[in-house]
Amino acid sequence: MRILIKGGVWKNTEDEILKAAVMKYGLNQWARISSLLTRKSAKQCKARWYEWLDPAIKKTEWTREEDEKLLHLAKLMPTQWRTIAPIVGRTPVQCLERYEKLLDMAAGKETYDPTDDPRRLRPGEIDPNPESKPARPDPIDMDEDEKEMLSEARARLANTKGKKAKRKAREKQLEEARRLATLQKKRELKAAGIEVRERTRRGGAIDYSKEVPFERRAAAGFFDTREEATRTSEMQEDFRPITVDELEGRKRKDIEKELIKADLAKARVAERANAPAALARALAANEASAGPVRRGKLMLPAPAVTDEELEALARGGYAAADRDADVAAGGSAATRGLLGDYATPGRVGGAPTPARGGAAPPGPSRVMQEAANLAALTAGATPLLGGENPVLHPSDFSGVTPRATPAATPGTHALGGTPAATLGTHALGGVAIAATPRGGRVSGGGATPAPVPTPLRDALGLNEAAASASSKREEAARLALLRNDLRAGLAQLPGPRNEYQVVVPELAPAEGAVPDGFFEEDAADAAQRRAAAAEAERCAALRRASQAVQRGLPRPAPDAARALASDPPATTAGGEADALRRASALLGAELAALLAYEAEAFPAKAEKGKGKGAAAAHQAASLPPLEQFASEALASAAQLLAAETAAVRAGTGHAGSTAEEAAAASAAAAADIILLPSTGRFVRGASASAAERAAALGARFDHARHEMEREARRAAKLEARAGLLTAGLAARGGRLAEEAAGATRDLAAAALDLACFGELAAREAEAGPARVAELAALVAAQRAREAALQDRYRAARDAVLDARRPLPQAAA
């Protein structure tokens, strides 16, 4: 039985699953999250998140301020790492590990080696706290448990339709079905004439699904809105859209930025125009804005060089002086001029050499002092045993955080020379101006800036000052200063005293040299020239070809031409027959050769296809060239043919025939020629037998049917391709046609409604005044009757009052 102990090193796959599970389940359901990881428990998952995967965890290097704060808080609250961690900004495990490392560094001091840390894991040891260590990369070949865990986690984390979601969806669907059923029932009852009274809300509550809350309905009737339109147009004329920036006004920082940009632009313009005046104005503005300078307290660091070291340096200086004297005595005047004077210390900007060395480096680190104090207290015995207490460095317990140490006053000699070479300067017109340092305040311990590595005593100029530039602006200032120095040095050169003229002799051109005026033709021009030459050659060859090729007429195959050429000529008496036979044979051979050459050199369009053009060109190149004739010979041959044609026409009685008659005769002769399938030769139909003519017609029918089938297949392919390309357009056309038909019907209905309402308006215009007059008459009659009734009522009331007045007198 395999026993699986949860824990161990975390892998990249487990980290990713844990982060995805936290995104889905939150930071409280660690048991559910751990169920996705077969090798980790809920407690380990929670520790892994809060000690490594939480984005709020700081994993950068420890700073000096953090180390001081950690040691100070460890002295105030020993072993309370969960209280110290939020104050420092780290996790408790990080604070504990850093504290132990600082103690080891303080105990070992100079002999401490980070690679020889006793707390480092050795091969074979198990990490007791793997939750705070980086994840191990995934292996290329995962085992089956890891693959199963990964697939299950992917399925569970991707499942957004669990039992609760399904139940909610089912309840929502049932509610919708219930609402639709109720609505259908009400409609059926209403159609049957049964009115269902709806429940009314109590206390005049508003039904937001049926009425608009606090709605003020307009009175029924038509009203004139011209006054409202006039007021609206007046309001729109006075209205102007305004942005938030315009409403709130410009911010002070934006105004200051614009003013600073304007000042910088003016300074650059003034610097280009008059650099010294611009420098003077800049200095004056700086002094005026700075006001009275308050000098801070002078904080001198501890001396870095002891008296013994000074004496050793002095003894070394005397020995060096003796060696220089020996060198000077043994060298020549030129050698002594090249060597620099290193006997006297170099000066910086004309200032005397200070009596002591440069500024001291920072004193002992406060972090190491506090770590040494804690290490001594940890290693010391209890005070109950008596004895001397361990000697500790002075500390401060005035607050929770350590006291800030004042920074030492920086000295200009520690930076390596003039202010122009110091850190944080820029040049204006070739003059260096000190600027505010960018590094912020000097971090605790109080130390002067690091000295410039360039040595001051460099008479041979072996060390360049380029290393002192720490930014692009300082590098540009240094280059500008070098250019100004170069211009000043060149301006101090004396003027020329003599003038020289050099006459260059004329030399013979060397072999292989390029002559003057030589022009190398461009590759594109050469290709165009070759293409033009090839086109001209093709046109010339086409002009030399036969008339059938020039006119694009159909040509017989070379085999058919040879067959026609081999036909025996008509019989003629005597030797004339032999001459005609030989002439016919020569003519047939020449015709066959010409047809074969032109068939290969100028193939017909039907013969061209994929790969046939190159093969035809190769075959044309392999054919023996035809005999070329001069233009005069060709013209003479054309004249002979024309004369012979005219003689043949005159001999046959067709000299006066027209072109239409010749075309008709040619068509009739062509229609009389048939192809014999048995022999594959063309013969005249009059000389063929009935069986041969039937076979020729059958062959023509088969050929026509084959061509028909081939064209049908081609048409089917084209139709399928056209259907594929136009299916969407056809569907869209159908939809547009339906929409157009609907729009046409709507237009017709609207036109009918317009005609009806127009007729109603016309009739209303005719009957309206009559109804108005009738109603006016009724109103007038009603008013007259009301007036009469009022008069009658008034008279009756007066009579009643008059009748009641004498009653009291009669009673008295």
Automatic annotation (TrEMBL):
GO terms (BP aspect): DNA repair; mRNA splicing, via spliceosome; regulation of DNA-templated transcription
GO molecular function: DNA binding
Any single Gene Ontology cellular-component annotation: spliceosomal complex
UniProt xrefs under Gene3D superfamilies: Homeodomain-like
Keywords associated with the record: Cell cycle, Coiled coil, DNA damage, DNA repair, DNA-binding, mRNA processing, mRNA splicing, Nucleus, Repeat, Spliceosome
Span of domain Myb-like: 2-53, 54-103
Annotated region (Disordered), positions in chain: 107-148, 338-366, 547-577
Family the entry assigns: Belongs to the CEF1 family.
Biased composition (Basic and acidic residues): 110-125
Record-linked InterPro entries: CDC5L/Cef1, Cdc5p/Cef1_C, Homeodomain-like_sf, Myb_dom, SANT/Myb, SANT_CDC5L_II
Protein name as it appears in the record: Cell division cycle 5-like protein
Compositionally biased residues, Low complexity: 343-359, 558-570
Organism per entry: Auxenochlorella protothecoides (Green microalga)
Domain (HTH myb-type) ranges: 1-53, 54-107
